[in-house]
Amino acid sequence: MADVRKGEVTMKGNPVELVGPKLKPGDAAPDFKVVNEGLEAVTLKETGNKIRLFSVVPSLDTPICSIQTKRFADSLNAFGEKVAAYTISLDLPFAMKRFCADNKIQNITNLSDTHNHSFGEHYGVLIQGLPIPLLARAIFVVDASNTIQYVEIVPEIIIEPNYDAALAAITAAVGA
Q1: Which CATH number fits domain 4-174: 3.40.30.10, 3.40.50.620, 3.30.70.260, 3.30.470.20?
Q2: Which sequence spans correspond to the domains of the chain?
Q3: Under a CB-based contact definition with an 8 Å cutoff, are residues 62 and 137 in contact?
Q4: CB-based contacts of 75: which residues, under 8 Å, 6+ apart?
Q5: Rounded CA gap, 24 and 115, in Å?
Q6: How, if at all, do strands 41-43 and 138-142 pair?
Q7: Could you give the CA distance from residue 145 to residue 27 in angstroms, rounded to a whole number?
Q8: What is the pLDDT of residues 25-52, one digit of tens each?
Q9: What is the DSSP string of the chain?
Q10: Which residues of the chain have a pLDDT value below 70?
Q11: Catalytic site includes residue 65
Q12: Catalytic-role residue among 34, 44, 65, 84
């Protein structure tokens, strides 16, 4: 059975339980199997061999998740093709595609973990014990050799991540 961590994250002040390991910089990025907008399975290997940002959100249809996704979409333009960005949630791929189309976001690929929750479980961000499963708000920066360079698991679901720290980690990983 997977590790369960309680109290690391709250939702509106109430502690929730996270399933999976507590990853840190220097750890090997775990594999996963998620689904893209075309309903095709995507694994860690298939995300490429460049710097990757995994921006994890509970649902794109909520205000903070929307802000987070738009903010990274705007900020990542400066890196061009050096960085691949992914938003990962338990939203269905159709809703994720609609969100990005409505918001004219073209530089972030949406990946849905709704199939088997493997990203959430392997990256330690799957929230259990809610009426529906959700992923905790988190940021992972993974380098070309699949080593985690930056991790932020936001301690309160309804607050934004530290964009500056995440972008600094991306900048350092790119070598810019």
Answers
A1: 3.40.30.10
A2: 4-174
A3: no
A4: 163, 167
A5: 25
A6: unpaired
A7: 11
A8: 999 999 999 999 999 999 999 998 899 9
A9: ---EEEEEEEETTEEEEEES----TTSBPPP-EEE-TTS-EEESGGG-SSEEEEEE-S-TTSHHHHHHHHHHHHHHGGGGGGEEEEEEESS-HHHHHHHHHHTT--S-EEEE-TTT-HHHHHTT-EEESSSS-EEPPEEEEE-TTSBEEEEEE-SBTTS---HHHHHHHHHHHHT-
A10: 1-2, 176
A11: yes
A12: 65
Q: Residue 103 to residues 12, 77, 85, 148: CA-CA distances in angstroms? A: 27, 15, 16, 29
For residues 61 and 97, the answer to whether their CB atoms sit within 8 Å is: no
Please report the DSSP string for 131-156 in residue order.
SS-EEPPEEEEE-TTSBEEEEEE-SB
C-alpha angle 6/93/34, rounded to 5°? 55
Pairing assessment for the beta strands 83-89 and 109-112 based on DSSP bridges: parallel
Per-residue pLDDT at 163: 94
